[in-house]
Description:
The protein has helices spanning about 30-35, 60-100, 110-115, 120-145, 155-180, 190-200, 220-235, 245-270, 295-300. With about 300 residues, the protein is mainly alpha-helical. The longest helix has about 40 residues, at about 60-100.
Amino acid sequence: MTGSTPPRKRRFLKRGADSVPSQGRHGARDDERGSSDKGSASLEPTAGRPDLPVPVAPPAPVAQRRAAVFREKARDGVHKGGSRARAALAYLADRVIDIAPRVPVRDLATLRGQFPGLGPEQLADKLVAGAAGATATVGAGIGAAAMMPVPPAMPAELAAEITGVAAIELKLIAELHEVYGVRPPGSLAQRSTAYLNSWSGERGIDVGKPATFSSAVNSRMKQQLRQQIMKRMVRNLPNLLPFMVGAAVGAVMNRRDTRKLAERIRADLRRAQVPWDALPELPPLETPAEPLALGDVPKELG
């Protein structure tokens, strides 16, 4: 075949060609190892030698680099979103704290004059029915405003609904305490803080155990307020459904939530209830300096 060497012309190694003893450091002859002068290649292992450059890892594939960038941006987005959510909850908690002392509350004498002939349970039923109807109206109003949802306006609509419902329920809690003869001691600001504590924990106040409620705003109460507001926001999300569906859903859910809250509060207050004939004469409740019109709470938030 063309290009192949005929067998007769092939060279064969001489027998005994490797009979010369090895003289190198690694068991090889110097003529096989090549030159070992300084600056030439060496057969010594290179791992751990500081005088040699560190081998550079090959660059990652494009897909891996893009995935790493995407993960980093997603992590930053989650962090920023969490920061904005915490800031929004803190703002709403501060708004609820600000409006609590401005909520007008009727004392027991005023309530008995407006609803003559009713006992404590019948009067409490009237208060719960009125508050449930008011919160249902707020939910329906926000749902109607969100008939054509605009994403930038949705957080403001939820905030307006939550603060409006909170004001109505704070008034209900305060007046239920009056009906059951369990008015918290202290000034207007201290009682308002106690009612805030009751609203955030969904529990009634036991005035016989001062350790069970707080009359000062602290970090624990603010945390409870943020948690309660977060629960309300999650439950109120369906109120933003379009085409008046949100109005119906908001009315039903707000009425249900207010009744459930009232049931828990009344169950606690019944255990600490003081009969009307055993109540000492209590001074009239102070009128807030700037009484809050409950229908104007959503307007204050725009």
